[in-house]
């Protein structure tokens, strides 16, 4: 059935005439504006830097700071520790704080583990025994398992005073003059404060880990203290512990705290020296021994040929194998130090030495996490962030030989 002629020839409305008169470019811009406005209303287009929907982790922190509490179900929320739990914790803490001499690492770890058990009960995170496969593949997976799991809101039975008591007890153990902080104790402390949503003391504790005087017993059984070496390899904060501390700072959404954690961990000279000692020395040692191994191999192959004198064959074979090994090693070194597939928003500035790029890669990756956390969620909006806080972050990154949102590497700008 054909439509009536009057319906086909119906005059256009003013809105249709307005849109028809507009160029296509303006109509597309108008549609884009409407779409972005809808995203902002729905919360998808809000920048994380200026307006971010607080996670359950941050909501719990705000509730505890204001003295309020959220109702939580018994399956998700934490439970108040019993009097027996608190008594056991106080006894373990007093063993360390009231020790007449220097408490052993076992005693300090036992006290921190008791605090961790109570902190897990408060936060509602059940302690699960890692599988055999997980332990073999990554020893730090138990710590980093908190990275992708938000802590549930505390139960209404848990007061801020109880949480502060647990947090202060852990800090008192770490900062006690006669307690020698070990990597295991530092990891335990970071884990406790992360469970309690109290990451503010991390920079201070990391500085204390490097600069705290070392206690020791003299011949008269008196406690003496020796000056520490802040730049020593032994004072480097383990990468897994620093990563967990940075995660807690980002969950709290504190830019100053996140940058302070990076300054006291990944940017410390002890961390760089530790990385060179643990990861660079074996390849460097192998490269130094390579000429001797190649000459031995070339001389052992000389008796199996009869075209050249053994001395000439050894020299030619050694020169060939050494050239081949040097060329392959150089290509591998350049490929390792110039790879940027793992970079998202923060890249190295032009002219940064290749060796320094490799040594500071952990620092750059940590700064990259901060930029992603405080910027827009949508990749197509990266580079549009504004505000004094964001400009301060950009300047902080630039002063350390890195570039935030390099135009040539952004999506669609290749």
Explain what you see.
The protein is mostly helical. The chain has 4 domains: 38 residues, no CATH class; 172 residues, no CATH class; 62 residues; 76 residues, no CATH class. The strands form 2 sheets. It has a two-stranded antiparallel ribbon with strand order 1-2. A two-stranded antiparallel sheet has the order 3-4. The longest helix has 33 residues.
Mean pLDDT: 77
Beta content: under 5%
Element order: H for helix, E for strand: HHHHHHHHHHHEEHHHHEHHHE
Low-confidence stretches: 1-76, 126-156
Count of the domains: 4
Task: Sketch the major β-sheet.
Answer: 2 strands, antiparallel
Oligomeric form of this entry? single chain
Structural class, by secondary structure, is mainly alpha
How many individual helices? Answer: 18
| Tally of DSSP β-strands | 4
Please describe the structure with a list of short key phrases separated by commas or semicolons:
single chain; 414 residues; mainly alpha; 4 domains; two-stranded antiparallel sheet; two-stranded antiparallel ribbon; 18 helices; 58% helix; disordered N terminus
Topology of this structure?
Layout: H1 5-8, H2 14-21, H3 24-42, H4 56-65, H5 83-97, H6 105-123, H7 132-137, H8 141-144, H9 160-175, H10 183-195, H11 202-211, E1 214-217, E2 223-226, H12 239-252, H13 255-264, H14 269-301, H15 310-338, E3 346-348, H16 354-359, H17 361-374, H18 388-398, E4 402-404
Antiparallel strand pairs: 1-2, 3-4
Helix pairs in contact: 5-6, 6-9, 6-10, 9-10, 10-12, 11-13, 12-13, 12-17, 13-17, 14-15
